[in-house]
Amino acid sequence: MTDSVYHDVTIAPFNGIWPRIHASAFIAPGCRIVGDVEIGPDVSVWYNCVMRGDTNRIVVGARSNIQDGTVVHCDSPTDKRPDGFPTIIGEDVLIGHMAMIHGCVLEDRAFVGLGSIVMDGCHIESDAMLAAGALLSPGKRIASRQMWLGRPAAFARELTDAALADMQGGVAFYVRNGQRHRASLAEARGAAAE
């Protein structure tokens, strides 16, 4: 067992811009975070995620979680789109395992299911859900309290109050679980140093 197993995170600048990561965020081993990326308080970024802010910026709000194997990228400014497509992830957002988040806006309390793809110019409003395995094609907008599913994704149904409560329970779980993983990794580092 080597200590390097517990430190395998890349946090690197691009064009002189370093990621800005709040001290309370949990960044799991295997993550690669590059360039203009801002990660807020109590965020958890899970094992083997990639966040590449090289062509535009990425922002992740407080308590959001980006689960294992997810890729977050953005799109460059152009003559037609001088701002390009940054990726803006609000607060209390749930992003499932192996999702692809690209040049889009996820408002506070949005949910992106595992294995889903959210493409350039998309917008998922607060308390809205993109179901597991769905593909949200460029420029689509999911309104608050709607669930969309399929490839390409389309409206399926309205979300109930119980579903929204479950989503917020998931947010709280991931904040606590990130703290537990941080403590467990710190304990393993201490044991490896002895």
Q: What's this, in brief?
A:
The protein is about 15% helix and about 35% strand.
Explained architecture:
The protein has 194 residues and is α/β, with parallel strands linked by helices. The chain has a single domain, classed as 3 Solenoid (UDP N-Acetylglucosamine Acyltransferase, domain 1). Helix content is 17%, strand content 33%. The protein has one helix at 161-193; strands at 10-12, 20-21, 26-27, 32-39, 44-45, 50-60, 65-66, 71-73, 87-89, 94-95, 100-102, 105-106, 111-112, 117-118, 123-124, 129-130, 135-136, 141-142, 146-149, 154-158. The longest helix has 33 residues, at 161-193.
List the helices and strands and how they pair.
Blueprint: E1 10-12, E2 20-21, E3 26-27, E4 32-39, E5 44-45, E6 50-60, E7 65-66, E8 71-73, E9 87-89, E10 94-95, E11 100-102, E12 105-106, E13 111-112, E14 117-118, E15 123-124, E16 129-130, E17 135-136, E18 141-142, E19 146-149, E20 154-158, H1 161-193
Parallel strand pairs: 1-4, 2-4, 3-5, 4-6, 5-7, 6-8, 6-9, 7-10, 8-11, 9-12, 10-13, 11-14, 12-15, 13-16, 14-17, 15-18, 16-19
Antiparallel strand pairs: 19-20
